[in-house]
Structure prediction request, 688 residues.
Amino acid sequence: MSEHTLSSPNGTITVQVGLTSEGQPFYSVAFRSQSIIKPSLLGFEFKDRPAIKENLEVIDSKTRSFREDWEMPWGEQRKVHSAYNELVLHLKEQTQAKRKMDLIFRLFDDGIGFRYRFPEQAATDELLVVEEVTEFNLSGDHSCCWQPGDWDSYEHLYHQTAFSEIDAISLRNHPNLKSSYIPENAVNTPVTMETKQGLFLSFHEAAIYDYPGITLRIHGDELKMTTALVGSDRLKARAKVQIPFQTPWRTIQIAESAGDLIESPLLLNLNEPNILGNIPYFQPMKYIGIWWEMHIGKSTWDIAGSQDMSTFIDGKKKATGHGATTENALRYIDFAADNGIKGLLVEGWNTGWEQWIHSTDREGVFDFMTPYPDYDFDKVVAYARKRGVEMIMHHETSAAPRTYEKQMHEAFDFLKKHGMNSVKTGYVGKIIPTGEYHHGQWMVNHYQYVLEEAAKKQIAINAHEPIMDTGKRRTYPNAISREGLRGQEFNAWATDGGNPPDHIAKIAFTRMLAGPIDFTPGVFNIKFNEYKKGNQVNTTLCHQLALYVVIYSPVQMVCDLPEHYLEGGKIHPAFQFIKEVGVDWEQTKVLDGKIGDYVVIARQERISGNWFVGGISDENERTLTVDFSFLNKGEMYLLRSYQDGENAHWDLNPESYTIIDLEVTNTSQIDIPVAAGGGFAMSIMPKS
Ligand code: NOJ
Ligand code: CA
Prediction:
């Protein structure tokens, strides 16, 4: 037995790493001497080769301390502080094979990361990973916020249960998912837990390269999780790695309040620094889109009108009319230009949509250069330029990455030629070829390839149906945002009632810990009865406003139809908040929050220095208190608060709002009544 102990810079987190009497590595984690992870084994199983688990010895160990301050080109905060203590254990088999494996632990004050490294060695060059044997032995039956471990989708609701009650299997066969594969009782990450002692933990990974995404297998009775990597039917294994190789970091965020999890930059600090330098071609922005109108069934993506999501999903109402026409695009451009919205996304502009959903072989269906005949690409682009609106490209790959890789280079040149700088990509459907999965190694490599090729051409990527964010935006700041959750679109067509009022109060403490979210907030016409009687958004209008602050993304959609932002023929008074709210932040402070119940976040805009506060509640009404001590001492501020109207309710009266003007200082405290499913949004500017 040999044991090594390491502490975080302020000494609150300690890790012990050692070898069992059989020579198998293990680690344990404590926070202020409270056990977080009980001794848990580490190792690997391979195809056609013996496992690396036992008979190891420590041949060398090194520790070092590291501190750094760095700046985000865009982000939730400008300045980031990083400080960790590191332990590297060099292990070697005592058996004949004498294979080598290193374990690297980094301890920060807000959590830990650890990874495996296989150094260059004579005997081994390529390994087929059958299982990464990383255990997480929990110290209790924590209360968990989780979603099923799905190899193909993160578009599930989050559930709150005791750890021992996690049941992913019962969530198979989701009616609204085109691709979903839940092979066993496991969870996707980030998965967040609250211990009985009031500590908050979140498990995920950082810096994923050339390796599958993680799910965590649940051993309910044993209060234990083990890595269950997303596999590949082609490999008949989970991953194929070339030595030298290192895994992503396995991460555990540890905090004394739920809000501290949101403020923690652990994942970013475990990624390598920016290798692209400044990327002046991308500026954070709000954007509108020819988008929601297809989801609610007002119009269609394809010109023939056969493939709209409404007919596809419930088969009742059939939308007619192509959304992406020249005329409609010009209308959206005018709306954006007149109302201070910088970008416009147009979906359904290119050929292929008439085939994609029903086509079993989606290879070669989409064309990323050819517009439909009723969409005058040049005219739209010229008009957008004239009116100062930035066009955003859309590439729905229909999960046929080989077709995309063939066309991508030319398609990138095409959009750059037309003055565009960013692409929303999409991967709806089962991955072609069959046997690969959205979160497997093959797709991780595809997403990375797209990112790198885009970076060469100065293009920013916002991927839908992506691999989960692991903080790579630090290294590749052209990875601006992504979906990877049950977005707003589910409210438009899901047959299971859409996203419940507490959806984002869970997302904020789980999915959002991974990175920016293209959730597409901003629905004002909550019931859209004109189009879909059976569906609605399950929040109030003010909750939608709050999402511009609560959810972090450097691209925030203003997703409703232009005509829905009018009240009495004029721009809706609450639209002022959307116009004003920042998208790029100097700093972020989580003021309050309880997982699944409510969250209140304050963010200060870069350059202007103005503050914005967003607060949301679940299905319960409540009073949320904002303490303004984050403001500068001695300064007077003008505050405008957009709040739920007196009888507002997410279902019974969702669009009722009131606007209140006040003056505040850093000693002010205000109680805000929040409706069931409600929220509030504040803009705060210095009184000059
Ligand atoms: C799913 C995406 O999440 C959504 O935003 C998009 O409109 C459709 N796919 C079509 O590409
Ligand atoms: Ca989606």
User: Anything to note?
Assistant: The two ends are 67 Å apart (CA to CA). The chain has a mean pLDDT of 96. The longest strand covers residues 56-71.
